[in-house]
Write a structure and sequence with these properties.
Helix content: 25-40%
Radius of gyration: 44 Å
Oligomer: single chain
Number of helices: 11
Low-confidence stretches: 54-64, 66-75, 168-179, 512-526, 550-558, 560-566
Distance between the termini: 121 Å
Number of strands: 20
């Protein structure tokens, strides 16, 4: 603040839960010139002389005429108006323009013509200098930048600001936009700087309103060059309201200086004139919100259901939501993974639910090591039901078998490695890295064939990576089978176990806790005291035993010595 003026003309952002239609702003402008100051001084001098009653007749008449003239000028140099959100107040230019019906082309302009004619007939015009441009009027940000008073040194707008101005200007014209979807190159892998600039547009739907002022001479209102922006209000659907400049809030007035030969200075005051909500309305609004939230909660509960879906008794439901994160350490590029889930005995899956899958082909990225990031999600849902309850053996868990392959330029694949992953028996989040290997043929010819024409030794049964399911013997011999260690594959698993037995166990545990809680306080204290007393007696007995043990040993050794000497 300098010399009583408020120099902070930046915008302020508010967030309101109330409807923006309840916003009211009191705007007051006042001319600060030598003529206005002299008129105000003469008016005060006349009032003081009238109070003293010592004034001549001709002086009184002349000063009264001067005071009346100056009062009219002072009244025309100051104006105050309360403006609501998107409330239309017409300027003198619009009144002169829309009075002629032939100048009205659009439905909005014809509506303005009807309102102006009704206002002229009733002679109830509230404003002279202060008027508004609503969101429906053709007033773009180009005019706002050209007619802004509160920024003395006009800065060059940024590229993003110009693009945003064009976006809003197109939205104001309400012209249909024909969207053209490119049929090729949906993804630009190497965007240029010009492409980035043209694509970096934030098109958030925002409503804008401008409070304007006609700061021309008293007898020359209605000229476009004398229109200046006093305040700009923006609001979006999220309750965010932006006001530029901010309310004065007991600070000095904003300084407005017109352009041209007569540089006149004006004061601008902005005040929040929105009425406070009454206690009854506030309570009614809170009840409405509570009722709305309750209904929304009931609606969500109706979608989910009151009863939690439970598997049949004696069945364990296992849900695995996993992801093949990455693969690294392999010889060739363009990797993909083929996997399937093997279910042991007593396990089953949902009908028509696939238990296998293939990832996309992924190129390696040189970040420390050559890593191929797949981020491929998969999901399995299986059920375990033990038919023979007398069998006391532990159940076997499903196994995820996978093999890593590479693709060359001629669309020929090579086997890069085999691996397996046993589904964890504990629920929760698991991150696991599995090492892989591949069969190896001796000799240089096999490596040349693998490099030039693709192909490599493969396993007929991928379960041979572990113990094959068809193997019934006691020992599995792999003597003479040559392999080579390759890379590794990283998995993340989120395992969920669902069974009715879990609910029964937790219910039984709660019942036990309830029985213990129902015991009286004196009985619990008595049991604790008895336990402590028993520990004390046992401790005393052990102490006595330690003290008597050496004496017995001494007596026994003395008797043995006497018997040996005899």
């Amino acid at each position: 603040m300098a010399d009583g003026w408020c120099t902070d003309t930046g915008e302020s952002v508010y967030r309101s839960r109330d409807a923006v239609k309840n916003l009211r702003i009191r705007v007051r402008i006042q001319r600060v010139t030598s003529t206005a100051a002299l008129s105000q001084h003469l008016h005060q001098q006349v009032l003081s002389q009238q109070d003293r009653g010592v004034i001549e007749l001709d002086t009184f008449s002349s000063q009264t005429q001067a005071a009346s003239t100056s009062s009219l000028e002072y009244a025309s140099d100051a104006e105050e108006l309360v403006v609501g959100w998107q409330e239309k107040f017409f300027s003198q230019y619009e009144v002169d323009l829309y009075q002629t019906e032939s100048n009205c082309q659009t439905p909005l302009e014809r509506q303005y013509h009807t309102e102006i004619m009704a206002m002229e007939r009733s002679k109830r015009r509230q404003n002279q200098r202060i008027f508004t441009y609503t969101d429906f009027d053709r007033f773009s940000k180009w005019e706002e930048q050209a007619q802004s008073l509160l920024i003395p040194a006009q800065s060059t707008p940024t590229f993003l600001a110009e693009r945003m101005a064009n976006v809003r200007h197109r939205r104001q014209e309400r012209r249909p936009v024909e969207s053209v979807v490119p049929k090729s190159r949906l993804i630009t892998w190497e965007p240029s700087e010009e492409f980035i600039k043209n694509s970096h547009i934030i098109n958030t739907p925002v409503q804008t309103m401008h409070i304007m002022g006609d700061l021309g001479p008293s007898g020359k209102l209605g000229l476009k060059e004398n229109e200046y922006i006093l305040c700009t209000i923006k609001a979006d659907g999220n309750g965010v309201i932006t006001i530029k400049p901010d309310f004065n809030n007991n600070r000095g007035a904003y300084r407005l200086e017109t352009q041209g030969e007569k540089r006149e200075v004006w004061r601008l005051y902005l005040e929040n004139a929105s009425s406070d909500i009454h206690a009854e309305e506030k309570e009614r609004e809170q009840r409405m919100y509570r009722d709305l939230y309750t209904r929304h909660k009931d609606y969500l509960n109706s979608l989910v259901g009151q009863d939690f879906e439970m598997p049949p008794p004696g069945i364990l439901r296992l849900i695995v939501n996993g992801e093949i994160v990455s693969a690294q350490g392999y010889e060739y590029d363009n990797l993909y993974v083929h996997f399937f889930l093997d279910l042991p005995n007593n396990w089953s899956s949902v009908p028509f639910h696939g238990l296998s899958g293939v990832t996309q082909t992924c190129r390696t990225s040189s970040v420390g090591k050559d890593v191929a990031f797949f981020s491929y999600p998969f999901s399995f849902e299986t059920f375990f039901h033990k038919e023979d309850e007398s069998d006391g053996s532990l159940p076997q868990w499903p196994v995820l078998y996978f093999k890593v392959l590479s693709l060359d330029f001629w669309q020929r694949y090579r086997t890069e490695g085999y691996g397996f992953l046993v589904i964890p028996s504990t629920p929760g989040y698991h991150r696991m890295t599995c090492r892989t290997w591949r069969p190896l043929q001796s000799g240089t010819v096999a490596e040349l064939r693998r490099f030039f024409i693709g192909g490599a030794p493969e396993l007929e049964d991928i379960s041979y990576v572990r113990v094959p399911g068809t193997f019934k013997g006691k020992r599995l011999s792999r003597f003479g089978f040559r392999t080579q260690t390759t890379g590794s594959v990283t998995f993340t698993l989120n395992c969920i176990q669902h069974a009715r037995a879990f609910i029964d166990a937790s219910t039984l545990k709660k019942r036990r806790q309830t029985v213990l809680d129902q015991l009286g306080g004196h009985s619990q204290q008595g049991s604790v005291y008895n336990v402590l007393e028993a520990f004390q007696r046992a401790r005393n007995r052990m102490q006595e035993a330690r003290e008597t043990l050496p004496r017995d040993l001494i007596n026994t050794s003395a008797q043995l010595n006497s018997e040996s000497s005899a």
